[in-house]
Amino acid sequence: MKILLVEDDQETADYVTKALSGEGHMVACIADGAEALDRSLAEPWDMLIVDRMLPELDGLTLIKEFRKQDTATPILVLTTMSGVHDRVEGLNAGGDDYLSKPFAMVELSARVQALSRRPLRIGPDTVLRLADIEMDLISRTVKRCGAPIVLQHREFQLLEYFLRNANSLVTRTMLLEQVFGFSFVPRTNFIESHISRLRNKISRPGGPELIHTIRGSGYIASTSL
Amino acid sequence: MRILRMTSFRSTLLYAATFLLSVSALAWTVIWFVDSSVAQQIDTTVANEVSEIQADAGVINPAAVMRVVAGMIEHSPGTYYLLENGSGHTVASNMGQLDRTTGIREVSLAPRTSGGQRIRIRGKGVILPDGCFLFVGMSVQERTQMREALVHLFLWVGLITILLALATGFVVSGQILRRIETISQTSRRIMSGNLHERITLRGVEDEFDHLAVSLNQMLDRIQELMVGLQQVSSNIAHDLRTPLTRLCHKLEAVKRRDLTNDEMHEFLDGATGDANAMLETFSALLRIAQIESGKQRSHFAPVDLAALVGVLVDGYQVVAEAEGRKLTYTGGRRLDMVGDEQLLMQLVANLIDNAIAHTPEGTQIHVSAYRWSSELGEIIRVTVADNGPGIPKARHQDVMKRFFRLDASRSSRGNGLGLSLVQAITNLHAGTFCLEDNQPGLRCILDLPIGDVPG
Description:
The complex is a heterodimer.
Chain A: E1 2-6, H1 10-22, E2 26-30, H2 33-42, E3 47-51, H3 59-69, E4 75-79, H4 86-93, E5 97-100, H5 105-116, H6 118-122, E6 127-130, E7 133-136, E8 141-144, E9 147-149, H7 153-164, E10 169-171, H8 172-178, H9 190-202, E11 211-214, E12 218-221
Parallel strand pairs in A: 1-2, 1-3, 3-4, 4-5
Antiparallel strand pairs in A: 6-7, 7-8, 8-9, 10-12, 11-12
Helix pairs in contact in A: 2-3
Chain B: H1 2-5, H2 7-57, H3 62-75, E1 79-84, E2 90-93, E3 103-109, E4 119-127, E5 133-139, H4 141-191, H5 207-255, H6 261-292, E6 301-304, H7 305-322, E7 326-331, E8 336-339, H8 341-357, E9 364-374, E10 377-386, H9 418-428, E11 432-437, E12 442-449
Parallel strand pairs in B: 7-9
Antiparallel strand pairs in B: 1-2, 1-5, 3-4, 4-5, 6-8, 9-10, 10-12, 11-12
């Protein structure tokens, strides 16, 4: 992917650039907001990663200006502010996801992965599939090997999120934010409990495990792991 | 002089001046009244005398009038008579001569009886039908004396008033000054480091005692906050030192060369976990500070608390079940209020989290949310009650404190900031939060004013 990173903190910029290019992406890094706006509109990008606090032009304004020209390219907003509402403000400005510093690189690359899939999501698919699981988004039913599985609303949303992001890492905070709408991290094993219940519901005797735990990072829905 | 600059003394002077002014006004009125009534009395007496003389003598007999007047002159000292015949010759007199002016008047002359001394005489002159002029008068000496006596009296009263006012002013100001001095001395001692000093009460329950009580309470509160702050800083230090030490140990361990790849990863994962725990503590502190600054009120919007709590309980039931607790919910159908949805969610989630984390397996946790009318106005009361071991009543206040944990070894999970956050969010919504004994167990009671709900 061609990624434009707009970040004025040299250390973070280096760290992110190194990690993303290590994952096979092409990364261009600009520290100045105004310059970044020019560059972002000058050529096509697969994704923008924008820090909120920038010299010359602040991140939110940059995003708003960019969105006037381009509504499709996914944008990930970064910030040092960790207020509950920063996320909402970032998303309102036209960002697609939001990550507050300090963050783990795993978290960033998982979100980059998830964002890059977004165009597929808007596509005409009404049925999501992974191995022998089939999810019909119109009738809101789930089948495994053709046998129906009864899921509650939240379990359905959880599974839908996994299927949409099949084969890539999904972190706990991503699930909390995007499936449960939590802007905080519960102390109890909140996500773990929900995952384990979902696993029980979709498991098939002798069948392969579909949702895998990646220790210290999150989960991956995949047939091969 | 310091006492002259004092407000209390200046107001004493003002009072004294006002009082003196009213005394003068009173004195003037009294003197004028007494003086004129004495004059009136003289006039009446004199008029009576004139008519009496006329009556005694008969109207048209000048010789008889002369006899009567002559008799009067002999028998009534202090009264002055003058009788002149039609041609202006004095017929009988004990006061010298006068012109023939009729009516009431005051004259000043030296009668033979007074031995040449001039006296003031007030009297009445009449022309008798036969052309004779008769004047009857009385000395106004008594009247003058009385007036002088009154003036003297009031001068003395005025003087005493001023002296008393000044003396009282000095004494009262002095007392006030002393008590203010006590307070400022105490505050100087406190400033110089004796934080335990308090202003001594006189026990008379006057304004100064009230002031002293308020100031002492303020000092208590400040001291409490300072102790709290010290406690918090040492707690932060303690809470961060432990994971930092562990982090260091793990990083040291990674440096060893004989580690297998798996072992190294384990150490690194552990190190990341330690660092994350510290970050979480800082985030929680920042979040509390941010909420306490009150800025978040800008995110207030209508929220249906019934839906919010419902969704949370729904989400947490799975957790409770996995942890071997039972979570139930009863509540109103729609509980509209104005608040910060994200923060309220975090608040309720925190209470449920606590109930799950701090109770043994098999505990029943019940959440309820209903609307009430209370002294706070219309409120929504959210309760989270469990039948676990509870918290001793004496510790209810303690657990609200920042970084406080019942587990003194601080080894259990959590950072001791949960209820501080709850408290901060509750305060932001102008609500109240308290803990109660659920017999058995703990009941958290959260009262939130519904605010200005539209519609």
